[in-house]
Design brief:
The chain folds into three domains: 149 residues, Rossmann fold (3-Layer(aba) Sandwich), CATH 3.40.50; 229 residues, ANL, N-terminal domain (Rossmann fold), CATH 3.40.50; 113 residues, ANL, C-terminal domain (GMP Synthetase, Chain A, domain 3), CATH 3.30.300. By secondary structure, it is α/β, with parallel strands linked by helices. The mean pLDDT is 90. It is built from 15 helices and 28 strands.
Amino acid sequence: MLAAPPDRPFITMWHDEDEVDVVTFGEFVQMARCQAADFVAHGVTPGDRVILVMPQGIRVMVSFAAAMLVGAVPAIMAYPNFKIEPKKYRFGLSGVSKNLKARLIVVDDQFPDDLLSYVECSGDAKIVRNVVMQGGSSDWELPELPSDPDRIAFIQHSAGTTGLQKGVALSHAAVLAQLEHLSAAIRLTSEDRIYSWLPLYHDMGLIACFMLPLVYHLPVVMQSPTDWVMRPGSMLSLITQYRCTLSWIPNFTLQFLARRVSVKERPNFDLSSVRMLINCSEPVREQSIKEFLTAFAANGARIEMLQSSYALAENVFAVTQSGLDPSGLPGRVWVSARRLTDAHIAEPVEAGSNESICLVSSGRCIAGNRARIVSPEGVELPEGHVGEVAIQSDSLFEGYYNRPDLTAKAKKEGWYWSGDLGFCLDEELYVIGRKSDLIIVAGKNLYPQDIEEIVCSHPRIHDGRAVAFGLFNPDLGTDEIVVVAEVEHESDIQHTASIEDAVRNAVVAELGVAVGAVYLRPPKWIVKSTAGKPARSTTREKLIAEQPELRGA
């Protein structure tokens, strides 16, 4: 950071057409030094935890860098917004602040007073509003910090949708190893320019779209997740305007853009500058890729730019990356849906044959990383067999902060057990879901995202606003599938019967299983995680609270 060319543009923060903030690397360093001096004045010393609860933008990025300059350990938390369920947010804020025992909690002027009571301070901790970045002196001398690569650099929080998020402690050595391997895997050059709407409190936004350009002195064009959701086409407009070459996205983004960006808007976009649009953080869906290419082929969207990656906070970021093999594309395989659910084996079949599904890989392991598929007993499984993804790397986390119990459960003999289900085929990793989300009906393994994708294909269901989970039915002696889905418009509730019938028929036709119950709800009913994803288990709890007859399930 300190060695960056001072006049080189770093952050372009877009709010709307009339409000765009731009800082160079030189300006960013100056602001970070001022902020660092201010932190020291507030009593922050090396090793202290500093929690940042601020909106997406330059200020939180400066504060994060400033904390690292003084040897403190920063952690960014989600800022409250209409997408995050209030009760869940209060619970997370209380738990994280209690666990980290931070010296300083920094919030902005707009942070609600009533939420401050949920921040648990210990000892001489302080809550500070709106730290002024120009308040200190840019001539302030940086403290001499111990040259220890194993020292904690910062804490990320897992994007879990259940319970308290876990603090992932990452060393300087792990972060630098990850950035080195990631930059090589995506063939990073000084000409690259990154676009992002991703939140900085999760690994995709923090590592790929902040740490990577910070260390390699690249420009990044950003907007807040909320601004993007309200105006989906703004992503494509900014990529066009600034000629961005790289962007990381969760899978749902592809269909969201294809369905939400109007045909009238599309002629304004030019995606020819994009080298890689990297699909990450969710299982990669072939249907999403097809819809995006169909919608934006005329704008320069190409199959070779749609890449994929498997990443998680516990590994700093990426484990795998597509495009590393001669084809330059993620692997694709058609497998028997029946064998996948009944025998937990990905058995290749002829493309498009009956009862087959197409799975897209997350690529091959990047340098310094290994992945294997294991049974519950820890036995490595053969190719094509579904099991838990375990990883080993030189960027693996130290452990969950202040939670040695959780660390011991997750790290076994140098391997991290991810909780994700997948299989390997021809050196490519295919991730198909979370172990904890698996629905088992009469011995069949069903992956909720497969059901949810079918449900969301109905025109009266809001894109990406469906969850599927299992509830025990004592009459059947097994779980049954329960679907909760938000309708596109409140008025669509009047069509409940026809929507439910269509959903049931579609799931039977596609997966050969019956849905036990379908609950349609108005927009914004489903609980979402801080990562913006529907939270299956929390939504399940909300439904049970609303439907007492389900409580015994």
